Amino acid sequence: MLAHLKSLSLALAAPLILWGCVLTPGKFVSTLDIRADRSFAFTYVGEVYAVDMGKEFTKGLKDSDTGKTSIDSAGDEASLEAQDAKGEDSEAKNKAIAEALSKEAGFRKVRYVGNSRFEIDYAASGKLTYPFLFPFSSDAEVIFPFVMIELRGPDRVRVRAPAFGADSSKSGMSEAGSAASKVDGTFTLTTDAEIVSQNNEAGAAAAGGKKTIIWRATPTTKDTPMAVLKVAPLP
What is the number of other CB atoms lying within 10 angstroms of the CB of residue 128? Predict the structure, then answer.
């Protein structure tokens, strides 16, 4: 199942990088509770931005073009008209993404507010007998993962949040990572399971039979949140 999910991610990510949009976080609060019996509950409330990868790619090409010494006025006017048309296409695409996401289970609120910004309220829960990925929508062709829960052997789960750190190269979306400088939020993991490993320098705080790890996500955050937990073996 996990191998299939990874292959699906790569298959969808490739065209998105070339011509589509990738979602990245803005201001947000996200929580994940994982119990030793494999039950989990996840929430994400806050902003999401759509990064037009085709636009970013074109911008990079223009920035690197230093050979021009003059600009033809007619050509410049045509270019502006093309940019206006592309802007209208982007707005239509973003509204379509909002509509597609609103049909997916877990999205309690999806509102497109303009300027590539969405307001999202998402919640999901269940048993970790399968990998979990957020966000995901086959209709919207959204696959850049904010949070991933992977099954690692019979009694381990690994939590990773590629979008909540600057080290986005590992996710295969370094272009989106460099374009998204608006990330500002907290990701909180609570668990009563054994923590095998985690990468938060402050460590886990214990209280009431649970351990809590809080990661802060900003444009300067280098390490993406990661933790491995020991849970009940798969049935």
Answer: 20
Q: What is the pLDDT of residues 166-197, one digit of tens each?
A: 654 444 444 454 445 789 999 999 999 999 99
Give the predicted TM-score (pTM) of the model. 0.78
Which residue carries 């994940």 as its tokens? 32
| Distance linking the first and last C-alpha atoms of the chain | 16
**Lowest mean pLDDT segment, chosen from 35-44, 104-113, 169-178:** 169-178
What are the backbone angles phi and psi of residue 75, rounded to the nearest 5°?
-65, -35
Alpha carbons 82 and 157: distance in angstroms, whole number: 48
User: One-letter amino acid identity for 36?
Assistant: A
Q: 95: which residues sit within 8 A by CB, 6+ positions away?
A: 112
Go through the chain and tell me how many residues it has: 235
pLDDT digits (tens, 9 = 90+) for 62-83: 444 555 444 455 555 555 454 5
